[in-house]
Amino acid sequence: LLSLANICKSYAMGEEEYEVLHDVNLTIERGELISIFGPSGSGKTTLMNIIGCLDVPTSGEYVLDGTLVADLEPRQLARIRNKKIGFVFQNFQLLPRLNTFSNVELPLIYSGLKAAERRQRVLGMLELVGLSHKAESFPNQLSGGQQQRVAIARSMVTEPSIILADEPTGALDQKTGQQIMDLFRQFNQAGRTIIMITHDPIVAAIAKRTVRILDGRLSEEGGAINA
Amino acid sequence: LLSLANICKSYAMGEEEYEVLHDVNLTIERGELISIFGPSGSGKTTLMNIIGCLDVPTSGEYVLDGTLVADLEPRQLARIRNKKIGFVFQNFQLLPRLNTFSNVELPLIYSGLKAAERRQRVLGMLELVGLSHKAESFPNQLSGGQQQRVAIARSMVTEPSIILADEPTGALDQKTGQQIMDLFRQFNQAGRTIIMITHDPIVAAIAKRTVRILDGRLSEEGGAINA
Ligand SMILES: Nc1ncnc2c1ncn2[C@@H]1O[C@H](COP(=O)(O)OP(=O)(O)OP(=O)(O)O)[C@@H](O)[C@H]1O
Ligand SMILES: Nc1ncnc2c1ncn2[C@@H]1O[C@H](COP(=O)(O)OP(=O)(O)OP(=O)(O)O)[C@@H](O)[C@H]1O
Ligand SMILES: [Mg+2]
Ligand SMILES: [Mg+2]
After folding, report:
1. What is the pLDDT at residue B223?
2. What pLDDT, on a 0 to 100 scale, did the predictor assign at position A50?
3. Rounded distance, CA A84 to CA A163, Å?
4. Which of A159, A41, A124, A66 is closest to B141 using CA atoms?
5. Which of A127, B148, B159, B175 could make an SS bond with B171 (beta carbons 3.0 to 4.6 A apart)?
6. Is residue A208 scored above 90 in pLDDT?
7. Residue B156 belongs to what H/E stretch?
């Protein structure tokens, strides 16, 4: 499905360059459930942004679905993001002016689905994340964990082939977090590729495959984490 | 130090009222290290906002340092917030236009300290949270966990008598989270009251006293949580 070869990423800090990712090599097959596990500041979100075509590497080669991502035009990249990938952002990125229903519906707006179909999909997702009763609430009327679950619902509503989830249970208590993990597992069993980025060994433990990241370098785990 | 008696809090939802907190009774003594533990949506942040004088209850009585909070004027409330309480907000609330140093320095600006003293305090706090090397970074140049630690440094820099910390390690890996817990412990041992709001039993476990909250109702735990 995707292959990263010798990916490096640096940020400009005034006169200096700060290299965050160092020669990252990673291949992820279709249908995998994988976690990228590492401590705060290790480069997880940076790596996720590259995988999700939200940012470009400083150097290296990224091939997604057989296509070299560097050759794609912005419109093609936007299409990939909208159609193929569902994102759960670390800080959720809900639109404050939209209520829960509309935040979850947003990715469907340009999908060609009719309003009635969109409605059905959105309500179905809200039920799966336990937020049917909050459909009319705005983000500032939701708890932290409720906002996260809206973000999760939004990531799944287009039924994308890839889900990229950055710390997807950080704001959730254990029970709610496990319900969300079950949901990700179901999505994976239905054929979707799930890539979880996390510092939490309990979250990492649900994946069959874990890749560790530390100071921008990856190392393969060889199997699941035992939490 | 503070006493909440029969506190209720409702939010207006269109025509209806949604009652979030139901007859909350809680007394916290000076110098305690207490956690308020409960699941997502249980009312933790709502309760914290009341304790921190950021919101008012719908009914009930709140007495802080011998003063009925309802009798205080906005200016007096602002003074309490600025001088007595350090806040670690769930979504951090860093100012995006200020770098790390200036975000941490902000509470000191009106304290009367000289620039050199402020500088010393801020740099000291940044060292305690392991972010000296990020003093010039802006929030959008920091990882999620780094932002949280900036928020934690900012909560402590005025050396307030009370720290209110809402999910203070949600964005941190275990090791970094433990370092932050040790910092809270040190602050407590120096006489400060630490009130932690959390859904994480590991965080709750460091307190000597845990109060559970579920659907807006408190129940006393009787001792520490065993995580
Ligand atoms: N835009 C940026 N400019 C400069 N440095 C950045 C930028 N974004 C991230 N960094 C730095 O790169 C490093 C990795 O950041 P990243 O957000 O990828 O970490 P992370 O593993 O997601 O951490 P966390 O678990 O705290 O979210 C950090 O030291 C961070 O300060
Ligand atoms: N401004 C508001 N208007 C309406 N309802 C609100 C408002 N703020 C919070 N709520 C609701 O009150 C309940 C409690 O919210 P609160 O933020 O206190 O929960 P919490 O325990 O902090 O949860 P979390 O662990 O997810 O952060 C939730 O059901 C939430 O949707
Ligand atoms: Mg991150
Ligand atoms: Mg909360």
Report:
1. 52
2. 97
3. 8
4. A41
5. B148
6. no
7. helix B144-156
B126 CA: distance to closest CA in chain A (Å): 15
Minimal Cα–Cα distance from B112 to chain A, Å?
32
Of all protein residues, the one whose alpha carbon is nearest to atom 25 of ligand 1 is A40
Q: Which atom of ligand 2 lies closest to the CA of A145?
A: 26
Give the phi and the psi of residue A4 in degrees, each rounded to 5: -105, 130
- The reply to whether ligand 2 has any atom less than 6 angstroms from the CB of A143 is yes
The answer, yes or no, to whether any atom of ligand 2 lies below 6 A from the CB of B42, is: yes
Q: Is the CB of A172 under 6 A from ligand 2?
A: no
CA dist A165 and A92 (Å) reads 10
Per-residue pLDDT tens over the stretch A155-178: 999 999 999 999 999 889 989 999
Task: For residue B92, give the chain A residue with the closest CA.
Answer: A91
Q: What is the pLDDT of residues B103-134, one digit of tens each?
A: 999 999 878 899 999 999 999 999 999 999 99
Could you give the angle at the alpha carbon of A136 between the alpha carbons of B47 and A156, nearest 5°? 100
User: Tell me: the pLDDT tens digits for A110-133?
Assistant: 788 999 999 999 999 999 999 999
The greatest distance separating any two alpha carbons of chain B, rounded to the nearest whole angstrom, comes to: 54
Name the amino acid, one letter, at B119: R
CB half-sphere exposure, B38, CA atoms < 13 A: 25
Return all residues near A102 (Cβ < 8 A) that are at least 6 apart.
Answer: A95
